[in-house]
Amino acid sequence: MFSFKHRLPDDFFKGACDIHCHLLPGVDDGFATAEKSLHALEVLEKRGVSKMILTPHFMKDYPDNDRNSITAKFETFKAEAAKVSKIELRLAAEYMLDARFMEHFKQGFLFLDKDNTHVLCETSYMMYEHGITEMIYEIMLEGLQPVIAHPERYEYANNANYARWKDKNYKFQLNLLSLAGVYGEAAEAKAHYLLKEGFYNYIGSDMHGLGNFERFLPELKLKTKEIDQLSHMLENNKKLFG
Ligand SMILES: [Fe+2]
């Protein structure tokens, strides 16, 4: 059946909360300078965004990123940001399920939510690494809730993997621009599939800079039902922020 697709409505981001972004400057492959991050805040505020959870990478590739150093950098940035924007900021992290994951767990995670239960986790894009399921199991035993960042981007993951993760009660976070093909055709197709299956709980930009957002967002066209689903996920985001 012929199905119309539409651009996101102008007020789509009104009051929105982004739960995944690399806006904290100079700490990973995200925004390189505070000036660029502050400019992004101004642009996003004009779009209507009102809350952002900053989620720098905690992984082997960034050994200097730990709870103390990142928290100090966040407090400095937050003070600067308050001078140019009313967007409320919170610090969390995106934890790679690698050899350092359990170390971060012992030191205390930076959580997505105010109740300190939701942990944003990612895996390698290329291959399934041994021990992922066991690490997630351990944190769930402690009452924590894994939120899988951009499941659509994992090349090794197939529909059976996704169904198993849902059975285990993992929550899923969509990268908005996966739907625009920013990460390739396979990720775009998987994003539409997971959306159709109703597997996503949350939505994030995973913004590393403003470039993709400004280039791809105006071109993004979705079915009305998909836009409604994204709006529902934005509501879930807000509840997470509290
Ligand atoms: Fe990310």
What does this structure look like?
The structure is a single chain. The strands form three sheets. A six-stranded parallel sheet has the order 4-6-7-8-9-10. A three-stranded parallel sheet has the order 2-3-5. Strands 1-11 form a two-stranded antiparallel sheet. Strand 8, helix 5 (159-167) and strand 9 form a beta-alpha-beta unit. With 242 residues, it is α/β, with parallel strands linked by helices. It has one domain (8-241): TIM Barrel, CATH 3.20.20.140. It has helices at 34-47, 67-81, 101-107, 132-141, 159-167, 185-196, 211-216, 224-241; strands at residues 6-7, 17-21, 51-54, 57-58, 88-91, 94-96, 118-122, 145-149, 171-175, 200-204, 221-222. It is globular and about 45 Å long. It has eight helices and eleven strands. Fe (ii) ion binds at residues 20, 22, 94, 149, 206.
Quickly list its features.
three-stranded parallel beta sheet, TIM Barrel, binds fe (ii) ion, single chain, 8 helices, alpha/beta, 242 residues, 11 strands, six-stranded parallel beta sheet
Shape type = globular
What count of domains describes the coordinates? 1
Helix content: 25-40%
Kindly provide the radius of gyration, computed on alpha-carbon positions and rounded to a whole number of angstroms. Answer: 17 Å
| Largest beta-sheet details | 6 strands, parallel
- Beta-strand segment tally: 11
Q: Give the CATH superfamily.
A: Metal-dependent hydrolases
What small molecules does the structure contain?
Answer: fe (ii) ion
| Portion in beta strands | 15-25%
Unreliable stretches: none
Separation of the first and last Cα atoms: 40 Å
What class do helices, strands and sheet pairing give? alpha/beta
Which fold does the CATH topology refer to? Answer: TIM Barrel
The spatial strand order of the largest sheet comes to 4-6-7-8-9-10
Number of helices: 8
